[in-house]
Design brief:
alpha/beta
Length: 201
């Protein structure tokens, strides 16, 4: 009798293990569901998507940056923006990071990889494969080509009408641009804090 019980018990254990190893509604799939998924990144098909978010967040300071996901300078700039966000844990700051193909090897896959490196509920990520935003800010900033490796700050009252508004403050890491200072993380952070502190709680 005891032997039969032991055999039944062993069979039950084996069946349970097998069930967990078979992909289904539970087992492996359940375990995978608990793993953190990729950070959401939207495909920018037109500027209306970005404009809607920008206008919806009016009343907050908005940081817009256009970056290559592969370019070393842009990766350094992305790291600087992470430092700014960590130093200013304030809900009155919203960030839109727009990845676009400006450097050899740039792709949506690399943009997703970069987005997964930093998650913050105040940050929205976009993939601009057609450089739509780059061309729009080229007109706004007066750059020689599509705008990229630029870091733009908009105060709470900034309004996006037909075209992106001129930023209240911006920095860059581009050669030949003299209309704004080169990126300095401490100076950028200080200006961001200044704009945030102007907003009444």
């Amino acid at each position: 009798m005891k032997r039969n019980q032991m055999i039944i018990g062993c069979v039950a254990v084996i069946v349970s293990i097998a069930f967990l190893l078979v992909p289904g509604e539970s087992g492996v799939r359940t375990a995978r569901a608990l793993e953190p998924g990729p950070t959401e990144m939207m495909d920018l098909n037109n500027l209306d998507q970005l404009k809607e978010s920008f206008q919806r967040d009016r009343g907050a300071v908005r940081l817009v940056t256009l970056l290559s996901p592969v370019c070393p300078a842009c990766r350094s700039g992305f790291s600087d923006m992470q430092k700014v966000l960590k130093a200013i844990p304030d809900e009155r700051l919203r960030v839109y990071i727009i990845w676009l193909p400006m450097f050899p090897g740039d792709s949506r896959k690399w943009a997703q990889t970069r987005s997964d490196e930093f998650s913050d509920k105040r940050v929205s990520y976009y993939w601009d494969g057609e450089k739509i935003a780059g061309k729009a800010w080229q007109k706004t900033l007066g750059t020689k080509r599509e705008a990229w490796d630029v870091y733009l700050l908009y105060g709470a009252g900034s309004q996006w009408d037909k075209e992106p508004a001129t930023p209240d403050f911006w920095m860059h890491q581009l050669n030949g641009v003299t209309t704004a200072p080169r990126l300095d993380e401490e100076a950028f952070q200080a200006k961001t804090k200044e704009l945030v502190n102007k907003i009444e709680r």
